[in-house]
Amino acid sequence: MPDPLPLSNYRGIVGRAIAEDLGDGDVTTSATVPAAAVGRGDLIAKSICVLAGLDAVRETFAQLDARVRCAFVHADGDRLHAGEVIGSITGPAAALLIGERTALNFLQYLSGIATVTRAFVDAAAGQIVILDTRKTTPGLRALAKYAVRCGGATNHRSGLHDGVLIKDNHIRLAGGIAAAVARIRERDMGLKIEVETQSLAQVEEALAAGAEIIMLDNLDIPTMRKAIATIAGRARVEISGNVTLERVPELAALGADYVSVGALTHSAPAADISLEIEVASGDGAVP
Predict the structure, then answer these.
(1) Which residue numbers are catalytic?
(2) C-alpha closest to that of 241 among 172, 176, 168, 180
(3) 12, 110, 133, 263: which could form a disulfide with 53 (CB 3.0–4.6 Å)?
(4) pLDDT in tens, 165-223
């Protein structure tokens, strides 16, 4: 299990998600469920998945009613089989019904990312490090990158502020790779310099400029082999572009250090998880 995400990274997101769904009030629940009713719901994995997002579930119900109690028997990062119970949620029935969809939206979305990520990590078989990208749903990057960690992969940069990546547009606007790298070095930011390359000639330019990481972007296999041989350990190598799960074993065998995969966060299908609520009994009473 990765280190927990600080509450400050998602408290506001959860609050906005609740407000988006609830609006002026849940007209169905308010009309059909007695205010004093207590409910108990089981979170159940309906398909094989890797879990991520339990803290967002807990925060959803906490914001709705402090009396709700979550008791999870699994943790983020666990691999689940279809039919496994993730845990139970007990409290005022109205709060459970109001928060159900918002909580599941977070859990299904994040577990979907973790599940796809784990598949890529498994396919890499320890031969290459799987990285994510900035191709995330706006406003949800911290959560998405946390889910990637739950799936066993490594985060690339969190945003434009914490990593240097000189891409094709930077190169054109700066007047070339050498000029772009030189300007970064003048700033003395203490960050490793990565350069995106799209040809062997650019690989040689990046090496000559002293780039610490060289990205091989959308190159074919023979060209990547030549590029990695040319780099010969003088810089770290990242593969990027058109990376599918089926291609990972072949890419991992090339000898690069990293492969970045946008699909981890931009196209992962939601995991199938349900919350089945019923009237609580026994210790389900709310004080």
Answers:
(1) 101, 135, 167, 196, 217
(2) 168
(3) 110
(4) 999 999 999 999 999 999 999 999 999 999 999 999 999 999 999 999 999 999 999 99
